[in-house]
Amino acid sequence: MNHRKVEISYGASGSRATLTMMRDLVRECATPEMRDRALSIAAFSVNPADQAEAVERWVRDHVIVVHENPEILLSPEAMVRAVDEVGFAYGDCDDTTMLAACLLYALGFEVRLKAIMPDASGAFRHVFVEYRYPGSPVWRPMDVTVPFPPVWSGDSMTEVV
After folding, report:
1. What's the total number of domains in the chain?
2. In which domain, by residue range, is 98 found?
3. DSSP state of 108
4. For residue range 1-53, what is the model confidence (pLDDT) as tens digits?
């Protein structure tokens, strides 16, 4: 699947449906080809922290963050294919989140998608990935759409991959 056009319902139910579709796309990308890509990205990593940093750096270096209207969910495979064909891919927060989540998941990390910044209707306006090293109780945030680690203490919605 290259992309999935979605009609996002209003409010929290629309955000939940979108997170579920995103989770499904990340699960679908668990292929030998994506594992090979993740291993090549993290080839010089000596520990899980280095692997996660390599994934974040690769996504930052290869994805141009854009605002999408209408909203389209691009599969991680489609984004990697674009990188292979033209050297970069376009995507917004949901696309970059799924790509990073897929690569981390392929390396054996636990991942979850975290939606934040609810509006008055209860719809969440931003999403990023959280991951944890195998065997670790600590979830770490990764958001390649901003130049700093995301910090959020307000309402959120989470979908575990």
Report:
1. 1
2. 3-160
3. T
4. 455 555 566 688 888 888 999 999 999 998 999 999 999 999 999 999 999 99
**pLDDT tens, residue by residue, 87-96:** 999 999 999 9
Residue 70 token pair: 């209408």
* φ, ψ at 58 (rounded to 5°): -65, -45
Own/partner contacts of 99-102, CB < 8 Å, gap of 24 or more, are 99/59, 99/63, 100/55, 100/56, 100/59, 100/129, 100/142, 100/144, 101/26, 101/76, 101/129, 101/131, 101/161, 102/26, 102/29, 102/30, 102/34, 102/38, 102/76
Residues with Cβ < 8 Å from 49, sequence gap 6 or more?
133
CATH code at 113?
A: 3.10.620.30
Question: Would the pTM count as exceeding 0.85?
Answer: yes
Residue 157 pairs in a beta bridge with 115
Q: Name beta bridge partners: 18.
A: none
CB neighbours of residue 146 within 10 Å:
11
- How far is Cα 14 from Cα 71, in angstroms, rounded to an integer? 12
Q: What DSSP character marks residue 110?
A: E
